[in-house]
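As agreed, record minuted below.
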Amino acid sequence: MTARPRLSPRSTTTTLLATMLLAACSHAPDEQSDWIDGPPLPEPVQELHGASLRGRIYVAGGIRSGNVVSSSTFRLDSAATEWTRIADLPAPRHHMPLAATADSLYAIGGYDPAGSPVATVWVYDEGGDRWLERAPLPEPRAASAAGVVGGGILVVGGVGAGNVLLDSIAIYDLASGGWTRGAPIPTPRDHLAAVALAEALYAVGGRPLDPDRNFDRLERYDPATAGWTALAPMPTARGGLAAVGSLGRIHVFGGETSGRVFEEHEVFDPAADRWSAAAPLPTPRHGLAAAEQGGRIYVIGGGPSAGLAQTAVVETFAPTDVN
């Protein structure tokens, strides 16, 4: 039998550490391996919003190249390899949330090309490929967020006339076509995101008119009690973000300060009141849209640098029960 060489304690430790490191690296996932490229937008756009309706993703408005306010609306059909341009908005808008009910798509408020908040509300008529006017918001509102809960569209936060933060919540009754008010949001903010889950609306992040004072706040509105509940703060404070609900969780993407844009992708589990980190965005950006289609989340357009900048990039991610 050949004698085995004797190793010093130091060399044994070094060998063990190297072996452990190699094993860890061989099983460490590529942080971006869960992301794949989706069909790019027909044009670079930031400050747009997205929504899913009947298996299709819609985006509308925004700021396109040359810092021109857009009236374009694009649709991505299931399994399609490119976007389809459909009827333009009746007027150019940016920072205008979209909300999808079971059978309709609403475009709510936003800024006009002069930079003034507006109260217009439009609904898209799929059969006629046209936008129809609906009852306006109770007050002009831009850089807000919206979600559909029960029989209503809830619109929270944003900037009103005179560049003031709005704490009011506007509720559109889908049956009557009229607006009422809900309990004011505890943390008034603009450039926030909202997600509807389990008959409640979650207001995520945002800022008080200043990209260097981003909020980490997560607050839930329950229409049944007309009350707000503060939940676990988001690990990364940010405004100009996008959020999507999937598999009972909330996925949050992107955002900005005056000097940088965010790649962070964080996930909130309402059942545990807990956040976790997930695969970061391959293309960090703000003023982006996000929507789910066919079991994948699509993160769409936005600004790849702080302030005015546009991209047509679309990246998709498949959420699971553990992310």
